[in-house]
Amino acid sequence: MPDFVITAPVTPTLPVEGTEAVFPVRRVYCIGRNYAAHTIEMGGDPNREPPFFFQKNPDNLDTSGQFPYPPKSSDVHHELEMLVALKSGGTNIPVERALDHVFGYAVCLDMTRRDLQGEAKDLRRPWEIGKAFERSAPCGPIVPASRIGHPDRGQVELKVNGTVRQEGDLDQMIWKVPEMISYLSDYFELAAGDVIMSGTPSGVAAVTRGDVLEGRIEHVGTLKVTVT
């Protein structure tokens, strides 16, 4: 064992549904504006342009069921997404082989300090201050693809305090999961433990303390999070 000069950080993990095993997370890639209606509501062009990605930190993933309202923001938005967990990787992965690298799927939220993200956009700066803050990615357990296959259609729905806020379908993704994996592998060497947050449908909106968020992705699972 190496002689670390400080205590080694703990490897972030996600539970695997139905087992005591956990999935170690290496990197978190997030695709932006991957549903046409959400692209329009954010002021973008829904035509199929090359995808773009940003990153969160692995320890931003949180399975506690609670989302602490973050500092330095008064406009925090929910974005319900399907998470894709990779069991292997590589470079220049062909689209037709991309799903061979998927371990499973989960329901997650990309919580966003929208005001800080907006300021960063206006200044043509990176988005991390609005996206990659502590516990900004509430997540449910991973469901293995060996159990559910590779869902490419199914309802995506988020309720806030019992009222539907976001609604869409996985088949509305502009860039499908195999395409995302292949595209990323052209620019990064993907590896086991990488996860991809695959974009959100329209209806993103602000949350307040005390809100209860209930997400569901058909064939994948559910996620319940309270804003504290």
Specify the number of helices.
5
Alpha carbon gap, first and last residue: 40 Å
* Number of beta-strand segments: 17
The coarse overall form would be: globular
Task: Describe what this molecule looks like in 3D.
The chain has 228 residues and is α+β, with helices and mostly antiparallel strands. The protein has a single domain (13-227), classed as Fumarylacetoacetate hydrolase, domain 2 (Alpha-Beta Complex). The protein contains 5 helices and 17 strands. The strands form 5 sheets. A 6-stranded mixed beta sheet has the order 4-3-15-8-9-12. The protein has a 5-stranded mixed beta sheet with strand order 6-17-16-13-14, with no helix packed on it.
